Write a sequence for this structure.
């Protein structure tokens, strides 16, 4: 027997040993196929029921997830709307921020300008304060000088009262003298009197009238009895001066004396009525200087 034959015999034996149990097992299983089919059918029905239950659960879950997805879509839409609103607010806030920045820049510029103006004002206030202090110092000095002047004025007023009293007495004496002189001249029919006497002034006495270089003649143009004043149509151009004594006459009769005030112009003057007798001065009365009156009457 050859080697190939031996190998073939061995392979046939091995195949027999392997195929025989497999054939036996297959035969046993084929014999019990009806029972297995019923088992498979029951298992299939159970699996079908489970599948239907799972399908129902899946359908409900799908519906739930669909509703959940719809809610999520609504929420997403709301979020998109809120995002758009937020973006719009951001744009508005950005515009407000830019406007506020411009306002801040303008305010900073205004603040710088006002700071410069404030510095100038502070310097001006400092200068004004110094000027005020100087003015207060000057005011204190002026108050002291004013006090001194008031005291001196009071003293001068007291002296002036005394001088006025003496002057009034002298004017009354002169008035009485002129009146008596005029009456005597009319009684004895004498001509013009002698020129007025002159005397050396007493120290401390005030001058009553200024000496006229030439006779001064004029007319009364207005009379204010309340102010005891009369206006004349002669002035400084005719030799009238402040303090000069003029005499008012009417038809050659003595009326009163007039003391020229400070209101003197080249063609007009104002006199204060002094020593008025029984007659009252009126518009149209003649005016003559005191020296000429004494020489004529």
């Amino acid at each position: 027997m050859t080697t190939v034959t031996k190998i073939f015999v061995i392979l046939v034996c091995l195949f027999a040993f392997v195929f025989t149990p497999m054939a036996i097992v297959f035969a046993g299983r084929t014999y019990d196929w009806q029972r297995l089919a019923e088992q498979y059918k029951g298992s299939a029905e159970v699996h079908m029921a489970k599948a239907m239950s799972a399908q129902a659960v899946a359908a409900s879950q799908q519906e739930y997830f669909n509703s959940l997805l719809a809610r999520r879509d609504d929420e997403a839409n709301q979020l998109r709307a809120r995002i758009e609103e937020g973006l719009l607010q951001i744009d508005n806030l950005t515009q407000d921020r830019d406007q506020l920045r411009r306002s801040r820049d303008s305010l900073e510029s205004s603040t710088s300008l006002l700071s410069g103006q404030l510095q100038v004002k502070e310097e001006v206030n400092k200068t004004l304060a110094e000027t005020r202090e100087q003015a207060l110092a000057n005011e204190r000095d002026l108050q002291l000088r004013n006090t001194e002047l008031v005291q001196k004025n009071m003293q001068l007023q007291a002296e002036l009262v005394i001088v006025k009293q003496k002057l009034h007495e002298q004017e009354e004496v002169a008035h009485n003298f002129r009146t008596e002189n005029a009456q005597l001249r009319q009684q004895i029919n004498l001509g013009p009197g002698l020129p007025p006497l002159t005397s050396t002034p007493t120290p401390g006495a005030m001058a009553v009238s200024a000496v006229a270089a030439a006779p001064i003649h004029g007319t009364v143009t207005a009379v204010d009895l309340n102010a005891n004043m009369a206006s004349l149509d002669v002035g400084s151009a005719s030799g009238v001066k402040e303090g000069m004594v003029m005499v008012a006459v009417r038809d050659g009769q003595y009326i009163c004396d007039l003391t020229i005030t400070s209101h003197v112009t080249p063609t007009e003057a104002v006199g204060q009525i002094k020593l008025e007798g029984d007659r009252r001065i009126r518009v149209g009365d003649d005016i003559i200087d005191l020296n000429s009156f004494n020489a004529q009457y």
